[in-house]
Write a structure and sequence with these properties.
The chain is mostly beta strands. It has a single domain, classed as Nucleic acid-binding proteins (OB fold (Dihydrolipoamide Acetyltransferase, E2P), Beta Barrel), CATH 2.40.50.140. The protein has a 5-stranded mixed β-barrel with strand order 1-3-4-6-5. β2 and β3 form a beta hairpin. The longest helix has 10 residues. The protein is globular, with a radius of gyration of 16 Å.
């Protein structure tokens, strides 16, 4: 059960092309937004589509895979852990929740 601690699994599509950063140390980071969709019917019987956006961060060799194979609209499954961080900008504290990716599975059709 220890593997269930701070674990999240999502299937969705990239909302934009991944942003790639290479640091002076040689480490590479990729970040992108992932959209997950849910469809349900409300109490009035109307169909409702709900989209949630998630920030995903990928490091090193997996960042290379993201850089080479993923683009806006790519459908993927991710597994990772939630990271919460904050920073201050113009005297206002901003909070961010990200998924630090452990596993990536590319779904959908292979593009020609």
């Amino acid at each position: 059960m220890t593997s269930l601690k701070n674990s999240v699994q999502l299937i969705g599509r990239l909302g934009s092309d991944p942003e790639i950063r290479t640091f002076d140390s040689g480490k590479k980071m990729a970040s992108f937004s992932l959209a997950t969709n849910e469809t349900y019917y409300n109490t009035q019987g109307e169909k409702v589509e709900d989209t949630q956006w998630h920030n995903v961060v990928v490091w090193n060799k997996k960042a290379d895979v993201v850089e080479n194979y993923l683009k806006k609209g790519s459908e993927i499954a991710v597994e990772g852990k939630l990271i919460n961080r904050s920073y201050e900008k113009d005297g206002v504290t901003k909070y961010i929740t990200e998924i630090n990716l452990n596993e990536l599975l590319m779904l959908g059709k292979k593009e020609s």
